[in-house]
Amino acid sequence: MLTDFAARFLAHDIRQVPPTILDLPAPILAVGLEIRTSIREVYRDVPVLGKAFARARSESPVSQRRVPWAVVAASTGHDAESGAFTYFLGDVVTEIGLLPEGRLALVIPVGTYAVFPIRPRNRAGWPVAIAAAKRHVYLHWLPTSDYLPAGGIDDFEYHDERSLRRRCPEIDLYVSIRPKPEGSQPASLHTGHVRQA
Question: pLDDT tens, 110-132?
Fold first, then answer.
C-alpha cells in the first residue's frame, strides 16, 4: 500500500518495534472536543477538529491542564460495519472540573495497553506514520498476538514535549487489549482508524 511505502521513508519501521505491554496505573483525564467520523472521512475531519481545538484552547484555556503538558487523541466506539468511530482530541488535566462551554471530558480507563512508539523523521511525517502504525497494529500485530481488543477506548495517541522536536519527534500509541482466551481463534478486527493527526 502507498501509505506503508511512504512511511518507510518518513518514519521508523513500526514492524520492527515490539510494543511494550503495560497496565495503566491510573486513569488519564482529558478535556477537549470530539467528532464522529469514519475511516473514509477522517483525513478531512481531523484537521477541522484540530483547528477547532486550537481555537478553543486559546479562547478559553483549561485551568487544570497538567504540567508538563500532554494531549491525547483517542479513538472510541468503532463500528465494524460502517467504519465509523468517535475521535477525541484533548488536553490531559489533573482533575475534571467545570468545563468550558462546548468542551467534553474523557476518562481513559486503567487497563492493559500495548504501547507502540511512533517516530517520524520530522513533523511533516506525522499523518503517514500514524496511519501506517495503526494499519500495522490492527491488521498484522493484533491478529497474531496473544491479545484481543479490549473495547471501550480502542486506542489513543499520547503527545507531549517529545512530539515538538524538529528532528525525530515521537509519540506513543496505546492500544487497549485483553488476553485471548485459551484456544481461541484469531480476532475479528476492524481495519484500524487510518487518519491524519
Answer: 999 999 999 888 777 788 888 88
DSSP 12-27: --GGG-PPEEEEESSP
**What are the residues facing 91 on neighbouring strands?**
31, 71
Q: What is d(CA 185, CA 176) in angstroms, rounded to the nearest whole number?
A: 19
Q: Is the pTM of this model over 0.90?
A: no
DSSP 39: T
Domain limits at 110?
Answer: 2-179
d(CA 115, CA 96): 25
| Residue with cell string 506525522 | 126
DSSP string over 74-136: EEE---TTT-EEEEEEEEEESS--SPPTT-EEEEEPSEEEEEEEE-BSBGGGHHHHHHHHHHH
Q: Which amino acid is at 93?
A: V
Which residues in the chain come in under a pLDDT of 70?
A: 1-15, 183-197
Residue 188 lies inside a defined structural domain of this protein: no
Give counts: helices (H), strands (E), the chain.
4, 9
The residue type of 7 is A
The answer to whether residues 46 and 87 touch, using CB atoms and an 8 Å cutoff, is yes
Question: Which CATH number fits the domain that encloses residue 27?
Answer: 3.20.80.10
Find, among 8, 25, 30, the residue nearest to 159 by Cα.
Answer: 30
